[in-house]
Design brief:
170 residues, 34% strand, globular, binds 1-O-pyrophosphono-5-O-phosphono-alpha-D-ribofuranose, binds adenine, adenine phosphoribosyltransferase activity, transferase, adenine binding
Amino acid sequence: MDLNALIRDVPDFPKPGVLFKDITPLLADPKAFGYVVARMAAHYAKASLGAIAAAEARGFLFAAPLALELNLPLVPLRKPGKLPYKTHSFRYDLEYGSAELHMHIDGVAAGARVLLVDDVLATGGTMAAAGKLIEQAGGTVAGCAFLIELGFLGGRAHLPGYEVFSLLTY
Ligand SMILES: O=P(O)(O)OC[C@H]1O[C@H](OP(=O)(O)OP(=O)(O)O)[C@H](O)[C@@H]1O
Ligand SMILES: Nc1ncnc2[nH]cnc12
């Protein structure tokens, strides 16, 4: 399956100097989308996971079908002002700005092994913040799964001690 052909490069989005990896062609191809979810599910099938967590918005696109495939609870990590109940929060930097992620305080059970899922690993700021949220709640990060890793941005270095799985590396 040639996933590369379904990732569109958009230069200078959302800021000059950023080469944006647009996944919408892949999302529009059900065979390719299903293949990505199946590859992630196969990688974590025996990982004894307790939940899957993902940051909005693009992380949800992969985490939701994966949670259904692996029959696991899905935990949304959201930007400020979106979750209605009490939250833990964490501020972080990303390739083109800064942001804050929130998780409901009862989102993850103490001791749960949580898989974090996202479309892109760039600087690693988003995933590192997601990991902190899981750990604040008493869970552990069992792995971090991505469709795309932008290796030249060194995001893995911000995820020390976490298992990192990516289907495509640039
Ligand atoms: O490794 P990082 O430098 O943190 O960058 C990766 C993050 O950036 C993108 O999300 P973005 O915050 O642009 O939000 P979106 O999913 O709502 O488009 C992407 O979906 C990842 O979550
Ligand atoms: N270059 C990039 N392309 C797509 N999503 C991103 N998130 C952070 N950096 C990105």
